[in-house]
Amino acid sequence: MRRTNRSGGSVSRVAGGLALMLGLLHWSIVTADEPQDVRAALDRAVEVSYQDHWRNAQALLDDLAPLIDQAELREYADFHLLEARHLALADRSREGLDRAMSLLELDLPTGQRLRALQFAANISVLLRRYEAAFEFLGEGLQLDPQTDDTGPRIATFNMAAYMFGRVGEHQAGIEFGELALALAQESGDLNQACVARQRLAPVYKWAGESVQAEQVYRRGIADCQAVGNTLFVGVLQHGLADLLRPQRPGEALVLADEAIAALVDSVYPLGEFEARMVRAEVLHDLGLLGQEEEPELAELAAYFGERELWDQQARLEWLQARQAEQRAEFETALVHLRAYLQARESFLGRDRAMRLAYLQVEFESRSQQQEIELLRETARVAQLEAEAAAQQRRVRTFALLSLGLTLALALVLLFRVVRSRLRFRDLSRQDRLSGLVNHSWFFEQGQRVLQTADRDDSSGVVVMVLADIDHFKQVNDIHGHRVGDEVIGRTARRLREVFPEPALVGRIGGEEFAILVRMSDLDQVLARIEQFRQADPDGVRAGDPDVTLSFGLACFRAGDDLETLRDRADQALYQAKRDGRDCYRLDASCGAPARAALQ
Description:
The chain has four domains: about 1-15 and about 25-110, no CATH class; about 110-210, Alpha Horseshoe (Serine Threonine Protein Phosphatase 5, Tetratricopeptide repeat), CATH 1.25.40; about 290-430; about 440-590, Alpha-Beta Plaits (2-Layer Sandwich). Helix content is about 70%, strand content about 5%. It contains 22 helices and seven strands. The protein has helices at about 35-50, 55-70, 75-90, 95-105, 110-125, 130-145, 150-165, 170-185, 190-205, 210-225, 230-245, 250-265, 270-285, 295-305, 310-325, 330-390, 395-430, 440-455, 470-480, 480-500, 520-535, 560-580, and strands spanning about 1-5, 10, 460-470, 505, 510-520, 550-555, 585. Strand 4 (about 505) and strand 5 (about 510-520) form a beta hairpin.
């Protein structure tokens, strides 16, 4: 069945499908004609979810599911919010977000709407939908004064603390976190205090206040243990282990082991793998990370890579690089170091995206406020005009002129706002130094190009070209960074001339460029590379350093994604570097090896 709100929106019930755990005590529902039984069952499920195990709570929801479509709106919304939480814990965050957004289409009471907004903001952060996350949070903060329900207010402040902390607004994050904790302590709800400290502790850590962070972590662990919240005990132990690792690795190792056990017991895979990452780092710091841990590191790499958790992937690659260096496996260390730089660049791109989303939402909020003020001013002028019309024509004419001037000013300001937003969007996609698209936008657009190519069986070839400036460090060391920047700019302009639109050309690293181009055959691509290598008398001045590039090419094959294509092009580029630079090499996907090098 479907529940429809006044505007026609609907929420479909989604079956849980989880196996019942051995020895599970079912909460029986007597009849759908007794709503108090539905409320009591939901309250029991919430208690089990937060204090026992979410899978046990989901079993209670499965029993309740046949009755929920006939329940009151309050019970209906609580049921689906709790199921959305369980979906997120089961690594099905997108389904959980869809469930919350469907609930937001309903005419929910303020307290429930706050809970749905807080949950949607939280899951949007996990899914890297940062702009949506800040929009949900902003609506929640606007609704907060309209409710006296402490629970939703605490949840909203907790989310605000975490999100403001994540974008570097540490003071604001700490203020929201302390406010949530004060409300939790005032209510006497120890479970709420447990959650509030779990949110506040990392904000103090990000702000560099280690002593305060450790105190909040330890109090949070004690509070969560007191209410039996094993999940948050594990999360807090993991965070404290990460905080203590540099100075007290022995204590950090004990905490990491305890965190892993708690998170495994809570069936929270993401938290478990992050805690295992901290444990591996502590073992390395203690000199205890050996060959027997390689399968563990491989499992971590597979998990982080599959979910594009670039911050954790970067930490893992850095750890493996140091391990290989200690074993004098320098080539392996170099491979891991390169992977670390790539993962870190991807993470920083997402981190910048979150900060950018925050700034954009803040900018739009201020712009909307300006528009509201302008509209209020327009209305006021119109009212004055109506009153003055009864008195004399001159005053009415003056009021009309004032109204016209105000409207013109409003249009000018709105035009500037739109123009600023467009410029803001373009800056977020463009590499400022080279003028080309940046790393994030190149790979986002490139994946769309490949999806189109995969569906299109027409003739032609799609080629990924990676180009790297040879001996660029020497240019910086000998001529200075200003000349180095000019070399990057000149190279970018030349690549854009040789590969005009619709070819996708971007700067994806310090001196590394990428081109994704579709042409009738590979020879055309090679001809463009040859054209690039010809002397450019109009673009080079006397005294400029001689610059050459190495190229690696890979050709798209059905089913390829952008990372696969890039990896093959990267290997070809690496071969070109090893073969003396100033040449190109082709991946086997591009056909016969007879297409040798540009010497």
